[in-house]
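_Backbone structure tokens_
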Amino acid sequence: MEPLDRPASLAARVANNLRKELSGEYVVGGQLPSEPELATQLGVSRGTVRQALTMLEREGMIIRRQGAGTYVHYISRVQTRVEHAYEFSDLLRIAGFEPSIQLISFENFTLAEEMAVQLDVEPGTQALVVRKLFLANSQPAIYCLDFIPQHLINQPYDEYELQQPIFDFMKQRCGQSTVQNLAEIVPQVATKELADLLKMELGQPLLRIDEIGYNEEGGPVIFTRAYYKDQFIRFSVLRKRI
């Protein structure tokens, strides 16, 4: 008969337990308790904890810094195909986070030439710009700006509706649905405004995606600029040799 709780299997169980705790309770970038403290909390040896942490380190879930401790790295970070167009809340929910939306502002905006060309309207056209933060477990994860030409908005609306996913607003108040999006990926560093909104350091790298949404007739109906924090969102793309 094999002995119960062999070190390897016990370490795997401890790693699985920690994995669940990290996804639900720890703040990204936060420090974990020391190995002796974890051993006491979990009722196992320090060696078992060390093996479990090694497993999590290999997965990229934690970072162990010599002399400084162990820190959460990318907990349940979304890694999805860049060509898949998810609604932001769904994207965060898939990762196991509890998503929420914070409306920052909404106002009329005069489109400059560059953005007017993207939306196939004349420069100077009025648009509704909606600025929102998408939160993952109450932490800022995505900052989004949506630009919708005013002439597409054919029904009155209230502020509450703008706190919902923009695709719902487009369908209900514009009679428009996007069937495909054309996206441009732009590397960027955090300005002071972005750093304040996303609670990150000034100059820290961000992923920016500029996206045009097209309706069934092939007409552009919305321009979206979204800034993603790497702690929560990372995209992959399948490339083929031609």
Remarks:
- The chain is about 30% helix and 35% strand.
- The beta strands are 62-65, 69-72, 78-81, 99-110, 126-136, 139-149, 180-189, 205-214, 220-228, 233-236.
